[in-house]
Amino acid sequence: MEYISIVLKIVLFVSIVNVWFIQFNKPTPWRAVGANNMREEFKAYGLSETTMYLVGGLKVLSALAIFVSIWVPSLLFPAASLMAVLMIGAIIMHVKIKDPLKKSLPAFIFLLFSLFLLGNGNFF
Questions:
Q1: Residue 66: exposed, middle, or buried by beta-carbon count in 10 A (0-12, 13-18, 19+)?
Q2: Cβ proximity of 73 and 20 under 8 Å
């Protein structure tokens, strides 16, 4: 189970960094309908650019803390909890604007990863 947790932590970290740094200004199949980059996606949700940077910062910080929790287990609970809340928010935003359910798939998968880590975590 420990190896699965480590793999999930790495995948979650790499994926979030990819979304918020590498894919930030690019269209992806997971973006809100009609959005070609992160700014357009948050605009489609009715959210400000400030909110976009706040959410992005929290996701990256949370993903980094989840990754570091491989060596510092006490970081896992707050980081995975925050990530789960953020992913629930992402799913709600997709539903709010009536995106096809498949657009919520990455957020749903990261929510499951976070919940798995919370359920199997060694927090101290």
A1: buried
A2: no
Closest CA to 94 of 51, 46, 52: 46
Q: pLDDT category, 82, cuts 50, 70, 90?
A: very high
Burial 70-98 (b: 16+ CB within 10 A, else e): eeeeebbbebbebbbebbeebbebbeeee
CB 1 within 8 A of CB 120: yes
Residues 6+ apart with CB under 8 A from 36: 26, 27
Rg, the chain, Cα only: 14
| Stretch 74-81: mean pLDDT | 97
Q: Quick one: pLDDT at residue 122?
A: 62
pLDDT of res. 11? 98
pLDDT in tens, 17-35: 999 999 999 999 999 988 9
The candidate with the shortest Cα–Cα distance to 16, out of 111, 96, 97, 98, is 111
